[in-house]
Amino acid sequence: MSQYLSRPPARPVVLCLSGHDPSGGAGLQADIEALLAQHCQAAVAVTALTVQDTQNVLDFRVLDKAWILAQAQAVMADMPVAAIKLGMLGSLEVVEAVLHIRQMLPDVPLVCDPVLRAAGGGSLGCDEVGQAIGEQILPIARIATPNLPEARLLAGLPDGSADECAGKLLPNMARGQYLLITGGHGDEADVHNRLYSTEGTREVFTCPRLPGVYHGSGCTLASSLAGRLALGEALPSAVQSALNYTWRTLRDAERPGRGQFVPRRLPLHCDA
């Protein structure tokens, strides 16, 4: 009888604040799947409802600050949160909600995926949101994971290189923080993902460039990275683990609709 009473230890909990994508390719569903693959529990607080498919974002509606805080507080009162992952924020009110949550969880690693535009080009927030993320969220993040177009928006450098954007953004971050500028939008033969630290280190992780355009790759990377940190893996080892996992999900991606490919974040078959 005792064997039935014993239970495995609880998985680390990652609090995700992201938008809902009805196609299931990005947003909260991507967070949940990527975190399950890291053997973590995804506790999700919806920041926005979107009208989108695998091609582009057509419209979105941001939830108010009180509702977002209520969701997060319900989770925090019930579960020990081991990491925080930020996705689509969408308004200055949501940025304020994040800052409030950060005050309640000051020592938990926070991963910021600065979602400003969809891969199809649709906007996911006004210019003021990008400015607020750069000025208020980056300084409290353990690591931020912008792609190069997002890094250019945050840095205010429309044609800046990854190194130039990092040079503009890192002074706003605290000692011991990291900036990972991903290279999927570049034109290099291989993808170069560049990891910078506020202490002056720079490391480049390369992987073969895959054909096609992907919906939800940034969410997949940031969530898996948050999961690795929640499990206690150190940076930059956690970055390498998350990049390796994300590349595999893109290699095995499927095209369920008429638009972009969706990462295959979970295996097709589970062991019994």
TrEMBL record:
A GO BP entry = thiamine diphosphate biosynthetic process
Pathway(s): Cofactor biosynthesis; thiamine diphosphate biosynthesis
Q: Which InterPro entries match?
A: HMP/HMP-P_kinase_dom, PM/HMP-P_kinase-1, Ribokinase-like
UniProt keyword annotations, A-Z = Kinase, Transferase
One Pfam entry for this protein is Phos_pyr_kin
Under the GO molecular function aspect, what terms does this record hold? hydroxymethylpyrimidine kinase activity; phosphomethylpyrimidine kinase activity
**What GO cellular-component annotations does this UniProt entry give?**
cytosol
Q: Which residue intervals define the domain Pyridoxamine kinase/Phosphomethylpyrimidine kinase in the entry?
A: 21-260
> What Enzyme Commission number(s) appear in the record?
2.7.1.49
| Keyword Plastid among record annotations | no
Descriptive protein name:
hydroxymethylpyrimidine kinase
What is the organism field in this record? Ventosimonas gracilis
